[in-house]
Amino acid sequence: MQQHARLVIIGAGIVGCSAAYHFAKLGWRDVVVLEKGELLEVDGSSSHAPGGMFLTNSSKMMAEFAKYSRAFYDEFNTDPAEPALFGTGGLEVAYTPERLRDLQRRKGWAHAYGLPAEVISPAETTRLIPLIDPKIIHGALYTPRDAVAKAVRLLTRLTRAAEAMGVVFHGHTTVTDLDVQNGRIAAVVTDQGRIEAEQVLLCTNIWGPLLPEKIGFRIPLQAAQHLYTVTT
Ligand SMILES: Cc1cc2nc3c(=O)[nH]c(=O)nc-3n(C[C@H](O)[C@H](O)[C@H](O)COP(=O)(O)OP(=O)(O)OC[C@H]3O[C@@H](n4cnc5c(N)ncnc54)[C@H](O)[C@@H]3O)c2cc1C
């Protein structure tokens, strides 16, 4: 493993891989990504999430991120045999009149941020998803740009594209400490050796607070379990 890098990215989930790709695209060289688990099918959330992409958000910045990601992932959706993105559209269903009012508000956010969205009737909702009983719902917000991303396929394509621009990825490499000198991180310490780094980017998601804690920096982040149901 090299002993110096301009940029060390810790964590090869979708955020670390995307950051590596974008830095390389901006012309950064000498970029290294370190991942404690397997590459591609990483230890973190990215390889476990079903990949629902709901673009509507109260925050304009988050909606812009989501719009960008939707278009960006489309660029990597090049193999019809192994799609990386399904343009399914999204539905948020209202079981109460209050929820329907909230969905009207969400429609307003979507339109304000340039996203197509409409509130549809119970019958129209059931036409889109026959599993839903129209008698027990009040309507739904239909957002046709929403999608489902296949994260491992995207991770694979992003990683390969970043590698083609010179980014180096190391799996099974745990960053165990950050070496601080003169008030800034000078190196990352790993179970495979030490890398001096001009810049370090932490993309460790739920593990986010652990390394900063070692250098006296608190990230107020609490990991929580997340359940989901898959229907066939
Ligand atoms: C069950 C579930 C369902 C979800 N569903 C959705 C959904 O439908 N839509 C949606 O948008 N989001 C969903 N999410 C959230 C989404 O998956 C995450 O926000 C996203 O994957 C986070 O990406 P990341 O790259 O930040 O983190 P991760 O994918 O968690 O990657 C972080 C990586 O850092 C590595 N790492 C940590 N510490 C170290 C260290 N010290 N040294 C080296 N490597 C380290 C980890 O091994 C890990 O691979 C879901 C999450 C879960 C768990």
From TrEMBL:
Coiled coil: none
Keyword Ligase among record annotations: no
Domain called FAD dependent oxidoreductase: residue spans: 7-231
PROSITE patterns attached to this UniProt entry: PROKAR_LIPOPROTEIN
TM annotation in the entry: 7-24
Listed GO CC annotations: cytoplasm
Alphabetized UniProt keyword annotations: Membrane, Transmembrane, Transmembrane helix
SUPFAM superfamilies, alphabetized: FAD/NAD(P)-binding domain (SSF51905)
Family annotation (Pfam families): DAO
Listed name of the protein: FAD dependent oxidoreductase domain-containing protein
Organism field: Kouleothrix aurantiaca
